[in-house]
Specification:
This protein is mostly helical. It has one domain (2-86). The protein has helices spanning 2-23, 33-39, 54-86. α1 packs antiparallel against α3. It is elongated.
């Protein structure tokens, strides 16, 4: 449940960024994607391999990254709680 919320929030943010960049007349609007490079690190290291496709890297892989990362954190916290309870 929580992982779906985190991934959905990420996907909405990427979608809003894509909408902003595509509708903006500012020449430097595409530089907004640099912020997503920090948010989606280490997935953003795949830029060169994927021909700088920001929608694929952030929209698909980045969203999947945050979904999986949230699940891993939840499992790690539950294991930690179980270890603390045993003591």
């Amino acid at each position: 449940m929580i992982a779906s919320i985190v991934a959905s929030a990420h996907l909405i943010g990427v979608g809003l960024t894509a909408l902003y960049v595509s509708s903006s007349t500012a020449g430097q609007a595409p530089l907004v994607w640099v912020y997503w490079a920090f948010v989606d690190f280490p997935i953003s290291l795949l830029y060169p391999a994927l021909n700088d496709n920001v929608i694929l890297v952030h929209g698909v892989l980045g969203t999947g990254w945050w979904y999986g990362l949230t699940i891993l954190l939840i499992k790690a916290l539950s294991m930690l709680r179980a270890m603390v309870r045993r003591q």
